[in-house]
Amino acid sequence: MRMYDLIMKKRNGNELTTEEINFFISGYTKGSIPDYQVSALLMAIYFQKMNERETTNLTMAMVNSGETINLSKIKGIKVDKHSTGGVGDTTTLIVGPIVAAAGVPVAKMSGRGLGHTGGTIDKLESFEGFSTSMSIEKFMKDVNETKIAIGGQTADLAPADKMLYSLRDVTATVDNISLIASSIMSKKIASGADAIVLDIKTGSGAFMKNEDDAFELAREMVEIGTNVGRKTIGVITDMDQPLGYAVGNSLEVEEAIDTLKGEGPKDLTELCLTLGSHMLVLGEKAKNVDEAREILKDIIKSGKGLQKLRELVVAQGGNPSFVDDQSMFKVPSIVEDILSNYEGYVKAIKADAIGIAALNLGAGRETKESIIDLSVGVVLHKKIGDFVKKGETIATIYANSEEKQKTSTKMVLDAYEIVKEKTNPKPLIKGIVTRDGIIKF
Q1: Annotated catalytic residue 126
Q2: Is 186 known to be catalytic?
Q3: What is the pLDDT of residues 325-341, one digit of tens each?
Q4: Which phi and psi (to 5°) does residue 439 adopt?
Q5: Whether 11 is catalytic
Q6: Which residues pair with 83 in a beta bridge?
């Protein structure tokens, strides 16, 4: 078998066989197939696309390129949640504890942030002493004892995906739905969950700017999960403005704690209840999403969700006092309100621009080597549909550099569009994708 023939075959619009896909992934991972040939094949896939069978085969070839985690020693149906990334997306810190408190094991492998989308591990490290580095034995022990553990992804988990993504990033082949779907699902499947709830974002702050593309991505990922025996559902959600109000690591953690107290933003609370409800149904702790939603609302109201967060923090070496005393989180040297230059209604907020403003402050990584400042970020005070007076505070900047504070202030002001007529925000939940099809709301 020759890589040259595979490139020509896909370039001409033909299907690659399972054996051919396994050959190219195995060869590239082992170093026997060079970058330039894989780049050529990726470009052929980008233009000619892959069908459902090819995409599933590619996913499993990447899964089998390294370690897979066997979670069979964990009692119950293990349910994972994955978000395609957004601005102010702190759902894992809320959904994980409330779902675990309902009795569904949450065994989650998470990553660090790169660019303006924050990573769950970075946020959790706002808790003094918190560590996601642990053996698989401790990981499974924690889930059995507390129903939740959040670990860092190992280098041996789907290594072919990491290699392919690095190559796609520099060859303009990132935004192909089959390649995106197989990349995400290879890590989820290798992580060992029995069921997966996918939060696919769409809008200005999401990777999938176009709503139809988001539904198509969800359909492909659900098909992959179903084809390999994982119960999988996709929820399409809006990211045309940041989720909640806080953007920045410790700021988002504080907002997550407020949400677990029942005092969080309406949109963040609603999304967590929606995602968590599907997790409870897949975990067979509720007959339907309505019943699941009531269970989760009671868990928040009773304080069991907040208590589960404390247990998670303690189990992974963190200081639980931060959960009860938010003044313990580090406050940066500069806290500055941003005042509106106009009067009217907020028509739009460029979510990606808010994310980049937080990145500029040091809340995100421009490269993998960047050191994150966990204390900085942006807190919005006005969102789409809100009335703003001239001179009223629309956001607050948390910074440790006056120069960065001034630059980010301008970015935030430019991200807001204020008009005379009121505009209502778009629906937060846009639809659901299951093995049975697509439901748009």
Answers
A1: no
A2: no
A3: 999 999 999 999 999 99
A4: -120, 115
A5: no
A6: 199
